[in-house]
């Protein structure tokens, strides 16, 4: 028992359905991406990269709520829906701007309201390890009207930089978000209009799943420089919006729970072990051992 730590009742035992909006259902053909740096793929084909779109969107999810309800779904998790040129939503250009290929603020509000009206919840994917270099923070391609961030601009301090001021890139070739910087924390989660709070307050989203949450980092190890420090601080602000907000990470170790940081995690350990046992690939004893260690 951990004092002052609680997990939302609605999340306990919930049946989740994971949705990549682009490949779920096309509810509005007028917002399909047809030109530029992205291409339209034929529905039913396999993706050949990150920039080919099928055309699925938020309206398509709302139109299929009856299907989800018939399956017994209690909550949906959806891949990122913000502005990007990647159909799975990775490599954000603007975390606060919903990609027109998926809809807009009104269609997200409509979807959330419809889900709640059907006693279902919604959780978004928080991809905050890095920011696309062409995005609004760094703006290397000059796509955004404010110009490239400089030392007089708070955006300059959101991404991690070396001693010479050069961006420090992640494995995805985009700069890390530097959570040791107050500018980054204010932008991502501490302010009422921050990315994470915006979707909770304005759109009524019910939770955040942190993509590779265990890799979040900062330039100063003792100052919001570790994932454990960052996630614990995030929790404080999210639960400040509502104790009913669900907060989990894709990856996490046991101390993230004993330290009252997360509500849950994306349990690959459980899923892989059960699938292996069900297919005859492992013994019941091995299954039990894996499940025990994973929790």
Q: Could you explain how this protein is built, in words?
A:
- The chain contains nine helices and ten strands.
- 28% of the residues lie in helices and 12% in strands.
- Strand 9 (246-249), helix 7 (255-258) and strand 10 (264-265) form a beta-alpha-beta unit.
- The protein is α/β, with parallel strands linked by helices.
- The protein starts with 15 loop residues before the first strand and ends with a helix.
- The strands form three sheets. The chain has a six-stranded parallel β-sheet, with helices on one face. A two-stranded parallel sheet has the order 2-3. Strands 5-6 form a two-stranded antiparallel ribbon.
- It is globular.
- The mean pLDDT is 91.
- Helix 8 runs antiparallel to helix 9.
Uncertain spans: none
Radius of gyration, rounded? 20 Å
Arithmetic mean pLDDT? 91
SS elements, strand count: 10
User: Beta fraction of the residues?
Assistant: 5-15%
Q: Please list the strands of the largest sheet in the order they lie side by side.
A: 1-4-7-8-9-10
Distance from first to last alpha carbon: 15 Å
Q: What share of residues is helical?
A: 25-40%
Structural class, judged by helices and strands? alpha/beta
Instruction: Give, in order, the helices and strands.
Output: EEEHHEEEHEHHEHEHEHH
- Count of alpha and pi helical runs: 9
């Amino acid at each position: 028992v951990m004092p002052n730590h609680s997990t939302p009742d609605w999340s306990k035992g919930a049946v989740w359905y994971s949705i990549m909006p682009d490949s779920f259902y096309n509810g509005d053909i007028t917002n399909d991406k047809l030109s530029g740096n992205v291409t339209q793929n034929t529905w039913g084909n396999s993706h050949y990269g990150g920039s080919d779109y099928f055309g699925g969107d938020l309206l398509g999810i709302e139109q299929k709520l009856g299907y989800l309800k018939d399956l017994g779904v209690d909550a949906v998790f959806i891949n990122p829906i913000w502005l990007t040129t990647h159909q799975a939503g990775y490599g954000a250009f603007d975390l606060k701007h919903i990609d027109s290929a998926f809809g807009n603020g009104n269609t997200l509000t409509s979807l959330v309201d419809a889900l709640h009206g059907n006693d279902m919840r919604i959780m978004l994917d928080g991809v905050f390890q890095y920011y696309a270099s062409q995005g609004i923070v760094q703006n290397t391609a000059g796509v955004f009207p404010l110009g490239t961030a400089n030392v007089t601009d708070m955006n300059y301090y959101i991404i991690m930089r070396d001693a010479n001021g050069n961006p420090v890139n992640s494995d995805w070739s985009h700069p890390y978000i530097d959570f040791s910087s107050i500018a980054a924390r204010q932008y991502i989660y501490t302010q009422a209009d921050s990315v994470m709070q915006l979707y909770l307050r304005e759109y009524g989203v019910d939770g955040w799943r942190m993509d590779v949450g265990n890799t979040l980092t900062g330039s100063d190890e003792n100052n919001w420089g570790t994932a454990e420090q960052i996630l614990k601080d995030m929790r404080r602000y999210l639960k400040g919006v509502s104790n009913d907000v669900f907060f989990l990470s894709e990856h996490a170790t046991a101390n993230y729970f004993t330290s009252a940081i997360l509500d849950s995690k994306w349990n690959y350990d459980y899923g892989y072990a059960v699938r292996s046992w069900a297919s005859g690939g492992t013994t019941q004893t091995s299954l039990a051992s894996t499940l025990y260690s994973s929790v």
